[in-house]
Amino acid sequence: MSGQKVAQVLKMLGNAHCLCIMLRLLGEGKTLENLSEATGLSPATVTYYVNRLRQRNLVKGKRQGHQVSYSVNAENTDALALLQSVSALYCEPPASAS
């Protein structure tokens, strides 16, 4: 990944809303409604940031009936590795079910 591309990814992840959305998308895909509920952001705000992330090839969407499920674009391996590193370093692991 070139320095310019790294800077673009870091710029997007430097936005708290984008980072929050990207971290929620690690693992399984989520709809805009799921993302809105998980992040506490309005649906319009989530739509705006998801569109920005899609334009930069960080997020992809898959139509499922009337809804679109969004996920991290796994083809963008460098960005995915960076996001996973951020998650591992700064996010608490999910509580285990007892």
How would you describe this protein?
By secondary structure, the chain is an alpha+beta fold. It is 57% helix and 12% strand. It is built from five helices and two strands; from the N terminus they run ααααββα. The chain has helices at residues 3-13, 16-25, 32-39, 43-55, 77-90; strands at residues 59-64, 67-72. It has a two-stranded antiparallel sheet. A hairpin with a 2-residue loop joins strand 1 (59-64) and strand 2 (67-72).
Tag the structure with descriptive keywords:
single chain; 98 residues; alpha+beta; two-stranded antiparallel ribbon; 5 helices; 2 strands
Secondary-structure-based class equals: alpha+beta
Binned strand content: 5-15%
**Poorly predicted runs of 5 or more residues:** none
N-C termini distance: 42 Å
Rg from alpha-carbon coordinates: 13 Å
**Number of DSSP strands?**
2
The description of the largest β-sheet is:
2 strands, antiparallel
Give the topology string: H per helix, E per strand: HHHHEEH
Helix content class: 55-70%
Number of helical segments with 4 or more residues: 5
Mean pLDDT: 85
Which SSEs are present, and which pair or pack?
Blueprint: H1 3-13, H2 16-25, H3 32-39, H4 43-55, E1 59-64, E2 67-72, H5 77-90
Antiparallel strand pairs: 1-2
Helix pairs in contact: 3-4
